[in-house]
Amino acid sequence: MEGPAQIVVPVHAESIKVARDWVEEVLRRLGQDVYVAKVVVSELVTNVLRHTASTTATVRIIQADEGTVIEVFDSCDVLPKVEPADLLSEGGRGLAMMGALVKEWGAQPVGGGGKAVWALLPDGPA
């Protein structure tokens, strides 16, 4: 893969599956495991849908020296943070769960507004 692979999806519930299927297709071509990547992109695109007023989300896959990185860009300046969830809450566990599956993750503001949330996937073949 030369340079990052990228897809832009509208922020709709159906786009979560579109992004997940796209990530699977790209990573299978690269001979990489897709399970964690699909969980990551599902969580990150869902967070754009639930927590921002963004109309689109950009999903990128980058082959970095450290491994494969998935990035999701949106137009909201608020950075995500892991919040403690009580035992009965129905949400609030996604970022913590994702963090347990990946090598590391983070978020940073993007020049001109918005943010990128990224996750470095664990190593492993398909």
Spatial order of the strands forming the largest sheet: 1-2-3-5-4
Determine the structural class based on helices, strands and strand pairing. Answer: alpha+beta
Helix content: 25-40%
What general form does the structure show? globular
Largest sheet: 5 strands, antiparallel
Could you give the count of β-strands? 5
Question: What's the alpha carbon Rg, rounded to whole Å?
Answer: 14 Å
Order of helices and strands: EHHEEHEE
Q: How much strand content do the residues show?
A: 25-35%
- Round the mean pLDDT to the nearest integer and report it: 91
Contiguous uncertain segments of 5+ residues:
none
User: How many helical stretches?
Assistant: 3
Distance from N terminus to C terminus (CA atoms, Å) equals 16 Å
Describe it:
- By secondary structure, the protein is of the alpha+beta class.
- 33% of the residues lie in helices and 28% in strands.
- It is built from three helices and five strands.
- Strands 1-2-3-5-4 form a five-stranded antiparallel beta sheet, covered by helices on one side.
- β2 and β3 form a beta hairpin.
- The longest helix is centred in the first third of the chain and has 17 residues.
- It is globular and about 40 Å long.
- It starts with a strand and ends in a 6-residue tail after the last strand.
